[in-house]
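Listing S7. Sequence submitted for prediction.
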Amino acid sequence: MTGKNKDWDTEFTDFVVHRSPALLRTAYLLAGGDPEAARDLLQDVLERMYPRWPRITGSPEAYARGALANTAANRWRRLSRRVRETPLAPGQLAPAVDGPEEAVVTADQIAPLLASLPPRMRAVIVLRFFDDLSERQVAEVLGCGIGTVKSQTSRGLARMREALRPDGPGAARLTTTPAGGQR
């Protein structure tokens, strides 16, 4: 291994060690709350990033988030043609990270709500609100226009609000009590 390869190998390892928890949280939300699918999704993206590492310019985290969103959408398309697997019950989920995000990620209602959205809309909501990216950053990560981000955000939030209404279409599916014991 040459010195140059050793340098970028170390940089990539540092990136994985320090950014994997946040990226795993993003993958978890993009995978519709399935922790195994989230780990597989992140592993696939990191495996594809490693040989490309020297050529990744700008923000490697933005690159990884975009790759997660695209890989999740592609996986969703591929899996939609197969028999569905049964996900773990929400109470069996381990938090992806410690911190204020934990309450959001482990809330029983969030994962099913996100899973009910189309992949691109889900990616916009996750990147915008859970990863706290600006509209411009989300557009860059997903390779679309800011107007698309705005419309997908608006439609996604409207769908989630509708599902949360006591008389909304998702009310029957979302009857569990979220973390903290309040409805």
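Caption to Listing S7: primary sequence and predicted structure tokens for the chain studied. The mean pLDDT is 77. Helices lie at 3-30, 35-52, 60-79, 101-106, 110-115, 119-130, 135-142, 146-164.
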